[in-house]
Amino acid sequence: MNDWAIIFDVDGVLLQLTRAEEELFFQPFAKRIDAGVLSRDWNSYRIRNDEEIVKEVVARYGLPPSEAEVITFEYLALLEEQLASRELVSDTVHGAEALLKSLHGRATLGIATANFRKAAELRLLQTGLWPHVSGLAHGADGGGPKADILARAIAATGLPPSRIIFIGDNINDVQAGLQNNTHFIGFSTDAQRRETLKMAGAVNLAAQHDETAAFIHRLMKA
């Protein structure tokens, strides 16, 4: 058993969320409401979590609570269909595949994402990254903010937080790492985003995944 676990956020760290993927999330709502008025700013929702966002929109527009499950099913079916036909193509973050391969056997690898777990699986499968993280994959299912998702992933490892490295690109990721007492690496190719992560409390900041690898090596040796 590995005595370290490295847990990745998905969007912005392993995959780039494309505009087409983003719009597909809102497509099932269009049968029921004017989906064009729904915010595409994930931070504008009460909880940045796909399951919670669906429930929030359903409640806001007075739809039956049972519609949340139906909308989720329709979204995942659409996503699977379009990824399989390659009408939709997921975009890998530069260096992500090489990073995951370099960590094989050195630590347990996993994900903690605010996407539905199945959505993350489908997108990572298309890019070939899923086998690297499938053994410890946690998503929006079960609800709660990123701190809760990360906590579920940590619990599944059986390791103490001092043996967990979490890598994310959002303020919510920084907060999740701090609340769960893990090591944290803030990753973004965007300098302004890295400064935002720094202001939120991130100490280790990487602009490319070779820097991410160097931070991981340093943390595991310390």
Polypeptide structure, described:
With 222 residues, the protein is of the alpha/beta class. The protein folds into two domains: 5-17 and 91-221, HAD superfamily/HAD-like (Rossmann fold), CATH 3.40.50.1000; 19-85. It is 47% helix and 13% strand. It has a six-stranded parallel sheet with strand order 5-4-1-6-7-8, sandwiched between helices. Strands 2-3 form a two-stranded antiparallel ribbon.
Major sheet strand order: 5-4-1-6-7-8
Percentage of residues in helical conformation = 40-55%
The outline comes out as globular
**CATH hierarchy, class of the largest domain:** Alpha Beta
State the end-to-end CA separation: 20 Å
What order do the helices and strands come in, and which of them pair?
Elements lengths: L4 E4 L6 E2 L2 H8 L23 H11 L6 H19 L5 E2 L3 H8 L4 E5 L4 H11 L2 H4 L3 E2 L7 H12 L6 E5 L2 H9 L3 E5 L3 H9 L4 E3 L2 H13 L1
Parallel strand pairs: 1-4, 1-6, 4-5, 6-7, 7-8
Antiparallel strand pairs: 2-3
Helix pairs in contact: 2-3, 3-5, 4-10, 7-8
Short description:
This protein is an alpha/beta fold and 222 residues long. 47% of the residues lie in helices and 13% in strands.
